[in-house]
Each structure stands twice: as structure tokens, then as C-alpha cells.
Recover the amino acids of this structure.
């Protein structure tokens, strides 16, 4: 009789929750597509709670596999402090805020313990997130088609739905089959163009260049002609796809890219200045412990679109110092993979490109949605890294 482990049953259940969380989250991004007037966000919050409860049970039963590393220590401290800050500052929203702020750290720890017990869960997780990537791309095009049928281009000048597949890029780059991997990267590039989201387009371009340079041009191989052919072919395809869709949009993509300086990143610089002025008027308690989760919107009606400002405003100086430390920890791990010439090097680099770029011009760590894709990735990879074993990808 075939025996199925408790870990595998947990993993399957968690995978179903992650798929549901992603589908609901994609539709919840557009209020005009939500017939329940925000009900989808509530449903996603309940799914997030289910994910956390499921993960907490797993963590409680597997704490013996926990190991202290720079990143796991950071996540543990961050989780503890962010819960304390939530209790101090959230008020009547405390339950909802705690669900949101604890989701990504709990997800990270779960991925770490799961992969620490059995490294094959890195591959299994990869398959799940590839599946979610395909689903996210599918629903992205459905939603964009629906919205643009109402008012082409101008109605959806920048679609945030693209961030769901974009945050899954590190998982895509773990695929060993180059044809499948390259095909998904090209699809992602086209999707970023369709979204008109400048940050997404820039991120995909940087990742693609990094991928082509490290994965093909710099890589030592006895098939030099083939690797140069593949690299040049991908570059030609990127330029061709960009040219075709830019012409189809009547130059809208190039116009948006050229206007970055003129519109100050859709007014981001003005937003940053205004929120910094509000921060200056904060009292001592607010400087140290923050104003509360996602309270920038309460004070300014807009997100700060910058995680450094958002973390300082929401969580205070203690969390801000920790947040800055996170970059050093991640970069140190990135250097580790570079020295080891590990197959994870490219995908880890992609995760940093995404994290750094979006943290500067958007928000990630304060968001409870697609950031869990990166958190799960970092958790699984950290478990692999401390074992110093060769990563098997298929």
C-alpha cells in the first residue's frame, strides 16, 4: 500500500490554498471587476488566514529542523517585532493587520522547514509556482482584455496584475529545460509590455539581460556557437516583440518610458516629499513604533510607493533599521551563490532585482499578496544553501 507522508499532504493542501489565494488576489486588484464591492479582498484575507494557520501547525511540529542563519534570524525577529508593533498601533484593525503583516514571514519559515527536512520540496514547490505563473498569465490577459474592451489603452495605462507573474520569475529561472524556461521568460516580457507598467517592463528587461549574460554569454560551454545563437536569438525576439507591440499601441510604451522624468514617476517624487513632511511632524512614539500598518493611506490617501518611506512611517525606526539590514543579508547570500557558481545564482539575482526595484518605486514588504512568492522562494533556497548540497532542478 502506497504511504503518503503528512508533509506531502500538508504541501498539497498548502498548494491549493496558494492557487486560490493567487486567483482571488488577481481579481481583487480591480474593484470594478469585483461584483461584491471589495468582497474578494475579504475572501483573500480569509485564505491568507487559512494559509497562516496551516503553516503554524506545520511549524510547531517541525521546529527541531529550524537553524539559525542571517536570513532566518532576521525573519524571526521581524515577525516578533511586527506583531508587537501591530498590537501597539493597529487599534480596532489589529486582527486584520496581524494577518497581513505575519503572512510573508510565516510563509518563509514554512518553506525553510519544509525544504530543510526534504530538499526535493524545492522542486515540488517550483512546479506549483510554475502552475500559478501560468494561471496568473492566463487571468492577466483575460482581465486586460475585459478592461480594454471598455476603453482601449487609456483605461488601463498600467495594470498591477502583472506583478503576480512577475514575482514568480525566480521560480521560472530554476527550470532546467532551457526551451521551456526561455519561452516563459519571453511570455513574461510580452505580458509586461501589455501591462504598460513601467516598473515591470524595466525589471523584466534587467532580469533578461542578466539572465542572457550570466546564463549564456559568460557561461563556460563546449557548445559556444549554440549558446551565442540562443543568446542573440532571444535578444532579437525581445526587440521584435517590443517593436511590434509598441507600434500596435501607437508608441504608448515608449511615450510612458520617456515621460518618467517629466511626470516624476507618476508623481511619486511629490508623494515621497509630502509623506516625509508628514513624518517630520510625528511624535516620539510614532517615530519609534510607527503609525500602524498601511496607515500612509489614512494620512495621505495614497500609498508611499516606496518601502523605505512606508516601513518608517508604518512601523517606525526599529523596523526601518531591520529593513535596511535585510538588503545586506540578501546581498551576502547572493555573493555566496556567485562564489559557488551555483545554479541558483541567476534566479536569486532576479529575486534581488525585483525586490530592490519594487521597494524603491512601489511596495512589497508591506503588501500581503504576491510578496509571499519571494518569501517562499527565499525560505526554500536558504534551506538549500545551509546544506551546501547541489540543487537538483528538472
Amino acid at each position: 500500500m502506497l504511504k503518503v507522508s503528512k508533509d506531502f499532504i500538508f504541501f498539497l493542501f498548502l498548494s491549493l490554498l496558494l492557487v486560490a489565494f493567487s486567483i482571488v488576489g488577481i481579481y481583487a486588484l480591480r474593484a470594478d471587476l469585483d461584483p461584491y464591492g471589495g468582497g474578494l479582498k475579504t475572501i483573500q484575507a480569509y485564505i491568507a488566514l487559512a494559509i497562516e494557520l496551516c503553516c503554524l501547525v506545520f511549524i510547531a511540529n517541525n521546529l527541531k529542523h529550524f537553524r539559525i542563519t542571517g536570513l532566518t534570524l532576521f525573519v524571526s525577529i521581524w515577525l516578533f517585532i511586527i506583531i508587537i508593533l501591530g498590537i501597539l498601533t493597529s487599534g480596532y484593525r489589529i486582527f486584520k493587520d496581524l494577518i497581513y503583516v505575519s503572512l510573508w514571514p510565516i510563509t518563509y519559515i514554512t518553506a525553510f522547514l519544509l525544504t530543510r527536512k526534504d530538499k526535493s520540496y524545492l522542486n515540488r514547490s517550483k512546479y506549483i509556482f510554475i502552475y500559478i505563473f501560468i494561471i496568473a498569465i492566463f487571468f492577466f490577459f483575460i482581465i486586460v482584455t475585459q478592461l480594454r474592451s471598455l476603453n482601449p489603452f487609456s483605461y488601463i495605462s498600467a495594470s498591477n496584475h502583472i506583478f503576480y507573474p512577475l514575482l514568480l520569475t525566480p521560480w521560472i529561472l530554476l527550470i532546467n529545460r532551457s526551451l521551456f524556461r526561455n519561452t516563459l521568460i519571453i511570455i513574461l516580457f510580452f505580458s509586461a509590455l501589455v501591462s504598460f507598467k513601467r516598473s515591470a517592463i524595466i525589471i523584466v528587461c534587467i532580469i533578461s539581460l542578466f539572465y542572457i549574460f550570466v546564463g549564456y554569454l559568460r557561461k563556460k560551454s563546449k557548445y559556444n556557437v549554440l549558446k551565442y545563437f540562443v543568446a542573440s536569438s532571444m535578444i532579437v525576439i525581445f526587440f521584435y516583440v517590443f517593436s511590434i507591440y509598441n507600434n500596435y499601441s501607437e508608441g504608448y510604451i515608449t511615450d510612458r518610458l520617456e515621460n518618467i522624468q517629466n511626470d516624476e514617476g507618476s508623481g511619486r517624487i511629490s508623494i515621497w516629499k509630502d509623506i516625509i513632511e508628514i513624518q517630520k511632524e510625528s511624535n516620539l512614539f510614532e517615530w519609534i513604533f510607527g503609525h500602524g500598518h498601511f496607515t500612509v493611506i489614512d494620512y495621505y490617501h495614497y500609498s508611499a510607493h516606496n518601502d523605505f518611506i512606508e516601513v518608517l512611517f508604518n512601523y517606525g525606526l526599529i523596523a526601518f533599521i531591520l529593513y535596511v539590514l535585510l538588503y545586506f543579508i540578501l546581498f551576502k547570500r547572493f555573493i555566496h551563490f556567485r562564489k559557488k557558481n551555483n545554479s541558483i545564482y541567476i534566479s536569486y539575482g532576479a529575486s534581488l532585482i525585483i525586490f530592490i526595484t519594487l521597494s524603491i518605486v512601489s511596495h512589497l514588504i508591506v503588501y500581503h499578496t504576491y510578496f509571499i512568492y519571494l518569501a517562499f522562494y527565499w525560505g526554500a533556497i536558504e534551506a538549500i544553501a545551509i546544506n551546501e548540497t547541489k540543487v537538483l532542478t528538472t
Remarks:
- Residues 389-394 have pLDDT under 50 and may be disordered.
- The two ends are 28 Å apart (CA to CA).
- The chain is about 75% helix and 0% strand.
